[in-house]
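ugh ok so i messed up the first submission bc i forgot one of the chains. this is the corrected input, ALL of the components this time, i swear. 566 residues overall. if the numbers dont match what u have on ur side tell me asap before i send this to the collaborators (the ones from the other lab, u know who)
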Amino acid sequence: MATCKIISNSRMHGDYFRAVFDAPEIAPTSNPGQFVHIRIDNRLDTMLRRPFSIHNAENGRLTIVYKVVGKGTSALAGLPEGTLCDIIGPCGKGFSRPADDVIPVAVCGGYGAAATFMLTRQSKNGGVLLLGARSEKDLLLTGEYAQAGFQVKIATDDGSAGIKGRVTDLFPELLEEYKGKKLFFYGCGPHPMLMALARLLREKALDGELSVDHIMCCGVGACFGCVVKVNDHAHPGEWMYARSCADGPVFKLADIYTE
Amino acid sequence: MAELKVDFGKFQLKNPVMTASGTFGYGLEYSQFYDISRLGAVVVKGIRSVPSDGNPTPRVAEVTGGMLNAIGLQGPGVEKFLHDEHYLPGVKKTGAAVIVNIWGKTAEEYAEVAARLEAEAKADITALEINISCPNVKAGGAAFGTDPKLAEQVISAVRNATTLPLITKLSPNVTSIAEFARIAEACGSDAVSLINTLSAMVIDIETRRTKLANRTGGLSGPAVKPVAIRMVNEVYKAVKLPIIGMGGICNGADAVEFMIAGATAVAVGTANFVDPFAPLAVIDFINDYCDRHGMKSVSELTGSLLN
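and heres the new structure output, hopefully the right one now
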């Protein structure tokens, strides 16, 4: 746990914001897929901490990208530069480092793209971002991924950017283009998208890791509020609950339970 | 420096600050932040005879001044708790005093868990806390804690099954909590702890659905504190048993208030989620408070209400 100063906290576009913290205690040990648990203020209606994927961590600085969706995130969006925040992190299990011989493919929905960004720095072979969003105005970080050497493919529900459809609809094109190459998938996004992705990866005999979470409370594995269903390997075909904050949020594809 | 040791008759704690069951995992989750042996005791999450899945999700929802939870007592079961490093063996290595919260679906199951804990880990356990008050499971929680006859059955069954000190955790979801404290006393409980969470509901007005999959959940956090203080004081006047007071304690001043109302010790619950260091700040505050008020021992605070 550390007290971290906000270096900048500004709107990217629409309801999307980016906050940068001075976090020398947290940044150096942060890995892609991990999260920070932030105490936003002392108000009685936003008492509990809020979890945010770590978008970037370098030079002692920590960046998160977030969408204003409720009281907590709107309070966060109102915090000015210089504010001191109490942050627990890095929390949870992140993505494994891409193996030397694979091309990492980040498959993300909306601001899920924040969680996989640091993979761009770990990859030896570039990579691909498949990004799905409602419409063009919900796309983010595409420029940063491209700059970091990732090919970016887009799908939007309304067809305002990229192909019209779901992020999984980008697979035929991807698999054709990367035929014969060893791909490894990293997923982060809304739950239905992740379940569709897990099914598709299994159907195509591909492998990967998915960041699956649920409404969190303690963030450290104590309260069992944020559990998600994972395969119970001791009882094939059955599920068990795992804490997304401590056992996850990143789970291996083999652990992901799809109903 | 006041004497912080507190005496429960059958057991003693180095200071009056413990953690509330269900808010502190099995202890190790918070030992990444500080040495948990500094606490009076660590009260672990409820243990039954077999593993349990708990309730469907969403299980938690924030409200003004607190939160609702309906975890439903997910847990590893007594076997794993006794032998897996993530649970009792690991917590014991920290040197912390451990109080084990137990539950079951029948009185016999409560007794079985108590007997097993005594047989295999007596030396490692300071006391058992009988959970007859979880609002989120029917059999094993609410039913036992809100029906005097069932409460009597469960507490007596556990009393007959173990010589370990017993704390009965009482439900606030009753007309008279003092009545249940008297039952606990008559059935051989060595202490009572209160309050468990208050049965509550929260609705998302856009979807017109309850925010919790279980529909109802237990309210905790600062919002419940005045209710808890009143109940601690009622129980203090009704029985001779020492009381562990809890319900919305966020800081040392809250804890002192519980002790003045009649608590011998206190437990920090929801505040752990906000500030993992909250229990340590409570210990420091109590010590300073005693010094400031010329109290040589923290026990002078208990029941010191003047009107």
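quick check: The radius of gyration of chain A is 18 Å. that seems consistent at least. Chain A touches chain B at residues 1, 39, 44-49, 86, 88, 214-228, 240-241, 246 (CB under 8 Å).
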